[in-house]
Structures are given as structure tokens and as C-alpha cells.
Amino acid sequence: MAAADSALDPEALAYARGLLKPPIVRENLWGVMAAAGFAAVSALAFATAMILAPPVTTSSLVMEEPSEVAPAGSEPN
User: Fold this and answer.
1) Rounded to whole angstroms, how far apart are CA atoms 72 and 9?
2) CA 65, 68, 69, 73: dihedral to nearest 10 degrees?
3) Each residue of 4-57: pLDDT tens digit?
4) Backbone torsions φ then ψ of 56, nearest 5 degrees
């Protein structure tokens, strides 16, 4: 018996098989791209602020070396 002798319509069978296939799930990447873009822009903004910000201290601090001689009136350890 050949396939042409079937009582079923091949076009209807192909349509039914197409309806039974699971749908193709496509992921939406716009949220991921927006988060990555926001992270990049904020990193550049923070880097620019760190470069352009004035220093925290405006005067240099000089460390004095301790003297060999104890000041007058102090007790030895």
C-alpha cells in the first residue's frame, strides 16, 4: 500500500503536527543590555568623579623624627 492510498489528508496532518510542536522560546536581551549599559555608564561617572575631585587634604603633612634627647622634665622609661 503506497502513501498516496491513505484516506488522511497529508496537508492536514502537516498542519496538525505543526500545531503540536512546542513553541520556540526567544529570550529578550533588552533587560540585560540595559543593565550592562547602566553599569558601564555609572562606572565611567565614578571614575570621572574620582579623577576630577579635589584632594581631601590640601596641606602636606610632615612627619618629624623623634629626637635622641628626651625633653626636659620627662622621666626615662
Assistant:
1) 116
2) 60
3) 667 888 999 999 999 999 988 888 999 999 999 999 999 999 999 999 988 777
4) -70, -40
One-letter identity of residue 40: A
- In angstroms, how far is the first alpha carbon of the chain from the final one? 115
Neighbouring C-alpha atoms within 13 Å toward the C-beta of 41: 6
CA atoms of 5 and 73, how far apart (whole Å): 123
CA distance 4 to 23: 30
* Contact between 76 and 70 (Cβ < 8 Å): yes
